[in-house]
Amino acid sequence: MIRLRPRTLRGQLTLGLVVLLAAIFAGVGVGTTALLRGFLVSRLDQQLSAVGPRYAQSLEHELAAADTRGQAQGTFGARALNSVVTQAGVVDGTSATGDNTRQIRLTAADSRGLLALPTDGSAHSVRLSSLKAYRMRAVAGADGDVLVTGLPLSQVSSTVRELATAEIALFGGAVVVAAIGGAAWVRLALRPLERVTRTAERVSTLSLASGEVALDVRVPDADRNDEVGRVGASLNRMLGHVEDALARRQSVERRLRDFAADAGHELRTPLAAVRGHAELVLRRGGELPADARHGLTRIEAESRRMGTIVDDLLLLARLDAGRPLESKEVDLTLLVLDAVDDAQAADHEADGDGDGASTVLGGVTPTRHEWRLDLPTDPVTVSGDQHRLAQAVANLVTNARVHTPAGTRVTVGITVHAGRVRLTVEDTGPGLAPDLADRVFDRFTRGDPARSRASGSTGLGLAITRAVAEAHGGRVGVASEPGRTVFELVLPLERQRLSE
Ligand SMILES: Nc1ncnc2c1ncn2[C@@H]1O[C@H](COP(=O)(O)OP(=O)(O)O)[C@@H](O)[C@H]1O
Ligand SMILES: [Mg+2]
Question: Which of 403, 439, 448 best tests ligand 1's pocket when mutated (most atoms within 8 Å of CB)?
Answer without folding.
Answer: 403
